């Protein structure tokens, strides 16, 4: 699914007006489509109940007037709440007058009690920017302080749909994106105000859209990346993965990375780790080949282990390095040398990323593709900028770094960004329950496993983040966001892979 800026969707709609629809026709389609989704999600709650549709004085109000008519037809009791003044634009006025003829109650904001079972936000659309002025700031506060569920039409009023900035905005339980997702639905901080986001297709033909948009990762695409296994396949034909992970203080990172690689289908896994965590590794894992390595006084990989690690590269189809390896001079040397020597793709995570901060050019000289999986803090260290800068410019930061250093960047967080420096994809699976230690190690193992099995690194990264997030969503629904653990996700992963075979 594509994700558009305000200007991009305006161009799409302009073309549709020139070729197919009047503005009034498209407004009616939008209102009717949104009404169906409202009824789908809240039908039982609003039947014979009051619904407040809060409308501004622009075109977004027209969608609200159509919604009021459709909810009346369904059996709800709609009330149109005028936030400021009645629109003077021709198209919204058509549907306002129709609503009035049907006897739908119209109330001024200052006279509204907001004791509704549901509030529908149609105050502002994609054109909003800056800070809300009176009376809209008070409208937003009143909606947010109500005890009603809130549905935002297209975007929550008050968010900037293109750059996702927010001064003050409506906080929705459900946002219904019209035609396509907008940047505010997938980028912070605005995505925090959207709640669950669903998209309604209002029938704009494909020839109204252009190429080179931001895209979401879809299940259909992910399925297309996995070939059916051959009848006569063997462990060798399903990929060799070398994990260079773990240390005395963080053995769990190595275990999690290994388990997720195994559960996502790699044929053979070899785990290289500092020798002091041998008992931990062998207690929790039975499938891999174990390769304990020489360690330093910090019980991390030592420089003395480097020759052995480089020799192991000859066996591998992919290398995962960095999970839990610690930060010191030895690990920096090990990581940089592995990147420069490896002839097979590398997935670089955690302290592996921290190890190249002072020597990023090693990425440009790598002999094989490198996938970096930084969280915002690690990305901030890579580009020497504050975390807030990274979060405010997620797409540009990830894309420019990937292009400059010829890498694939997986910038983690809500709506993870995946880019090769040219194309950019955003993930829509996942939930806040995944914000815990170990989920990044799990993702590293999955991406590296997919690469080892023969999926090209860019596609493997997209597949990894999508399935990883889906795994988290199912775990949250079966357990809870607070109660789920990384181990719960890993236990689910093996069965979940059946959807992609």
Helix percent reads: 40-55%
Major β-sheet, in short?
Answer: 12 strands, mixed
Count the DSSP helices. 18
User: Which strand order spans the largest sheet, edge to edge or round the barrel?
Assistant: 8-1-10-19-18-17-16-15-14-11-12-13
Rg is 26 Å
Low-confidence blocks of residues = none
Determine the mean pLDDT: 96
State the shape.
Answer: elongated
Determine the N-to-C terminus distance: 22 Å
Number of DSSP E strands: 19
Task: Output the structural class.
Answer: alpha/beta
- Beta-strand percentage? 15-25%
Overview of the structural elements:
This protein is an alpha/beta fold and 501 residues long. The protein has helices spanning 6-19, 23-46, 59-74, 90-101, 136-145, 183-186, 219-224, 251-263, 278-284, 306-312, 329-341, 351-354, 376-383, 387-392, 394-405, 439-452, 457-478, 486-496, and strands at 2-4, 50-55, 77-82, 105-108, 118-122, 149-153, 174-178, 181-182, 196-200, 214-216, 240-244, 268-274, 289-293, 318-321, 346-348, 370-372, 408-411, 417-419, 424-426. The strands form 2 sheets. It has a 12-stranded mixed beta sheet, with helices on both faces. The protein has a 7-stranded parallel beta sheet with strand order 4-3-2-5-6-7-9, with helices on one face. Helix 2 (23-46) crosses helix 4 (90-101). The longest helix is centred in the N-terminal third of the chain and has 24 residues, at 23-46. It is elongated, with a radius of gyration of 26 Å.
